[in-house]
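Protocol step 6 of 9: fold each sequence in the batch and record its C-alpha cells directly after the sequence line. For illustration, a two-sequence batch is reproduced in full.

Sequence one:
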Amino acid sequence: MLAESGAITEYIIDKYGGGRLRLGPDDADYAAYLYWFHFANGNLQPVMGRAMMVGRVTLAADHPVQVAVQGWGRGRPIGGRWRKAIRI
C-alpha cells in the first residue's frame, strides 16, 4: 500500500502510462521534468503547510512567523523559474 502522494503518482505513471506520461533520461527536458515532478513535495507543499498552520493560530500581525508566511497561497508568485516553466 502506498500512502505518499509522489510515490502514488509515480506508480500510476509507470504502471498505466505505457511510456506516454513521463520523459526518459535521454530527453533534453528530463532534468526539468524531474524538477517539476518533485516540486510540490520538495518546495511548495512545506510552504503551504506552514502557511496553513500559521493561519489557524492567532498571532499578532507583526509576529515574525506571521510576517514570514504572509502572502503565500494568495497568488504570490513562486519565482522566476516558475514563470519560465509555465511561459509567463
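Sequence two, same batch, same settings:
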Amino acid sequence: MAVRLLFGAHDKDAMLFSHVFAPGAIVTDRERLFKGIVSIVAWQRDFETRYPAHSFEPLRLARSARNVVAHMRVRGEFPGSPRKLSYRIELRDHRIVAMRVSEVR
C-alpha cells in the first residue's frame, strides 16, 4: 500500500508521507540524502514545485517480503524527459524505511 500511495498521488503532503514513510526513513535520490519525514517532504515539494506536470509509468515491479524494486518512466517538463528511474524500497511494518532512486541506463 505504501508504494501505491507514493506513486499514485500528486501534491503529496506531510500527512500522506507520515503514513507512507517511517519516522526515521532515509531517501537517497541520485547521491542526495534526505533523512526523516520533514526532509523527505521538502525533497518532494521541491520536485512538485519545479516540475508540476509530471507522471509515473510503471515499467517493472519486483517484490519480496521486505523489499520492492520499481522501474518507472517519469515524464515531465525537465531536462532529459522521459527518464527511466529505479526505486529500491525497503519496507518495515508496511512503511518505507529506505528508498534509493537511481537512473536506469
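Proceed to step 7 once all outputs are recorded. Observation for sequence two: The chain is about 30% helix and 50% strand.
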